[in-house]
Structures are given as C-alpha cells and as structure tokens.
Amino acid sequence: MHAAAFIPLAAICLRYTLLFSLFISPLVAVGIARSEEIKLTRNGAGLVLFVSLQRQSMS
Fold it and tell me: Do residues 47 and 41 lie in contact, with contact meaning Cβ atoms separated by under 8 Å?
C-alpha cells in the first residue's frame, strides 16, 4: 500500500475523532461538575460554611 492511500483514511479518522469529541466533551464536563458537587456536600467543613453563609444572608 502506498503512503498516498493513508492520507484520505487519516483525514476521515481525524474528522470522526473531532466529531466524537465535540459530542462527548459536554457530557464529560457535566459529569465532572456533578462529581465536584457531591464531594463538596459530603465535606463537613464545607457544609458548615455553607449553612453559616446562608444564615448571614437571611439576617
């Protein structure tokens, strides 16, 4: 096989990789954001800080 035959194949693979990453990256970002929220709520000090800030904003 010649090297010239790989150029169209490489271009197709690159296009599919780009398309796949454009669709998957927002899903990955949402997953990471949600995992950080879960870690924050499980942390006792973060919960105490959140509740104290909520109380201050109400008064």
Answer: yes
Residue 49's identity, in one-letter code, is L
Q: Label each residue of the chain as H, E or C.
A: CCHHHHHHHHHHHHHHHHHHHHHHHHHHHHHHHHHHHHHHHHCHHHHHHHHHHHHHHHC
Taking the C-alpha atoms of residue 11 and residue 18, their distance in angstroms, rounded to an integer, is: 11
Radius of gyration (Cα) for the chain, nearest Å? 23
Asked if 46 and 40 touch (Cβ cutoff 8 Å), the reply is: yes
Amino acid at 25: S
Q: State the CB neighbour count (10 A cutoff) for residue 50.
A: 13
Q: Is residue 12 over pLDDT 90?
A: yes
Say yes or no to pLDDT of 40 above 60.
no
